[in-house]
Amino acid sequence: MSAKYEKCAFVVEQDLAAGLAMNTVAALSMSVGRFVDGIIGDAVKDGDGEAHTGITAIPLPILKGAATDLRDIVLKAAGLPDVFVADFTAVAQSSRSYDEYIRRTADLGTAELPYIGVAVCGSRSAVNKLTGSLPLYR
Which one of 3.50.50.60, 3.40.1490.10, 3.40.50.10150, 3.40.50.620 gives the CATH number of domain 7-131? Predict the structure, then answer.
């Protein structure tokens, strides 16, 4: 990705158990970290001169929403330029291997997938447009 990203929001299905919600955000974070250039800042040195690995340089709110909200975000974001989307489905979370995930996902259309998490990165206005009405995950 070469666009400048100002914000990345993670939306988790509101009825997921806490452990599954954390797993969902962790999986999405790995994809965002890999595919969104420039999201991670440079290493930071402490007062002793020890380096600490860079962390995200932009806001990362964690929000919650209904499964239909997540599906709508995925579908709406597909038509927006300069917006990166990573999604995570119940199919992915319940598959025992990546090959199983591939096979099971191939049987479902985009609108049929059981989304349990989505990460949306882009300009502040684009991310807010897609996720702005959703509450923080608490």
Answer: 3.40.1490.10
